[in-house]
Specification:
- By secondary structure, this protein is mainly beta.
- The protein is built from one helix and 26 strands.
- The strands form six sheets. It has a five-stranded antiparallel sheet with strand order 1-7-6-5-4, with no helix packed on it.
- The radius of gyration is 19 Å and the shape is globular.
- The two termini are 27 Å apart.
Length: 346
Amino acid sequence: MNPWIILPNLFALSSNMSSSNTQSKLKEVFNSEPPAFVPKSSSTATRILDCHNILGECILFDDMKNEVVWEDIDGKQLHILNLSTGRHTFHQFEKMLCAFALRPQGEDGYLFAWEDGFQLYDAHNNKALSAMSEGEDVNPKGLPTRLNDGRVDPTGKRFICGGYYGDVEENYMKVFKCEISADAAELKLKHEAVVEKIQVTNSMCWSLDGNTMYLADSPTSTIFKHDYDTEKGVLSNRRVVRKYEVGVPDGSCTDSQGNIWNAVWRNGVGQSMVRCINPKNGEILHTVELPDNTSQLTCCCFGGPDFDTLFISSAHVNRDRQKEPHAGSLYAVRVGIKGRLEKRFS
């Protein structure tokens, strides 16, 4: 098979949602008074886009384009919301997009983590920019196992991404680091394992100094922290940040003070929320509630004009539409503290 895979029938579509309605909701959020960020405080998010994703995930803010970008893994789509116009578009693929990374100015496309490997890809022009990455088979069992959450490390040189075990009992996946090969003659990617045994990789983000990496194995209901070697991309010395009694940790990001903002997946066991956690002691500092009873929040990122707006993706995986009519929507809220820009993969 030609490693320079170009997926047929990829195209950009505009959603049927009103851009003016979404733009109005965005202005409402951006013009709202942010809450005082004090311990035990809370806020309520606004539903800004009824996109009805099956499994919305891996949401990032592209500051160069003023866009919020996320994926629908099960829907095989990449979604883009322009914060200036409220216009929502998406690209349709032939296989699952499980995570992605932004690229620096002047470098085209995204780094994609497909269900079965890594590739530089120009979604807007339906063009592969590299072959699939070289390394061990990231998904030897095939679907329903696949790659899952991923994020660029503090150096910008590595994309750290793990897998989803497909709800198969006693099955384990790995966490990989993906890098651009030193071979300058041709643009190549290579990957290798940095964690050998994990069920579902989630909640990946870093401390302010880059020396601590946060990582959840979601079925254990636990967010861990590790020492992170920025020179080698190696994890060590795992400790517990927080273990949940109800719900499991899904995607996370860190703010300008180093706190972890974690989307809590509750899967029908009550309304979901985002928790802001002090990584030093596991204390919950702030809780973002929802305006409805959606129970599958998946990930969050900071963006907006003052960079203090939290955008939150969600899912409706096997949920009852009568009980959770807005599951899979996109939410936003000002939280009274600024975020951090995502590193770009280069």
